[in-house]
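Amino acids appear as letters; backbone shape is given numerically. Here is one record.
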Amino acid sequence: MEPAAIIETFDLTKRYGHQTAVNRLNLAVREGEIFGFLGPNGAGKTTTLLMLLGLSRPTEGYATVCGLNPLRKVREVKRQAGYLPENMGFYGDMDAVQSLEYIARLNGLKQEEIPLKIEEVLELVGLEATGKKKTAAFSRGMKQRLGIAEVLIKEPRLLFLDEPTLGLDPEGAAQLITLIQSLSRKKQMTVLLSSHNLQQVQKMSDRVGIMIGGNLVASGSMASL
């Protein structure tokens, strides 16, 4: 028996004037899987992620995330889903611990829980030895890991990653792929990742959907595709 769908879209459509960014998308992502959203820049991948997070209103159709409509239940969706955008921003004068303390407070964690939670997520992403190094001095790969740690601190059921390996060298990309796979298995976390890189999507995804020009042209396992 297949796991239930944690994300579903029903003719999800987004138009900007006469330009259709996403065209009648029908998609189901199963709980616990890594789903790769593959396509070139401008294919509609990021627009889809923003609609799933309730950050952009569909022109037509609708979606459910964790059984919720993200437009009507945006706060509830944000409690259960974490989002790492393509370009993650940090306060450069903070170190990793300070950054995570800030995010933990924003997410309403109890003060007495925060130090242990920070220690846990830093270990998960391999940044436990960063000490007092300011984020301004972090490499691109370290920033991506810290971004994932910030998302993990609220223990989401679902993780949205937009071009997570963009700008990383081959070694850094390989390390991040291993980290994402490990987190999905250890935490039983569903991951929806958007990327234009076929090789990397193929390495880490259980199933893949291919977007071109706003249309989902194929979906399934790598073997079937």
User: Anything to note?
Assistant: The CA atoms of residues 207 and 224 lie 9 Å apart. DSSP finds seven helices and nine strands in the chain.
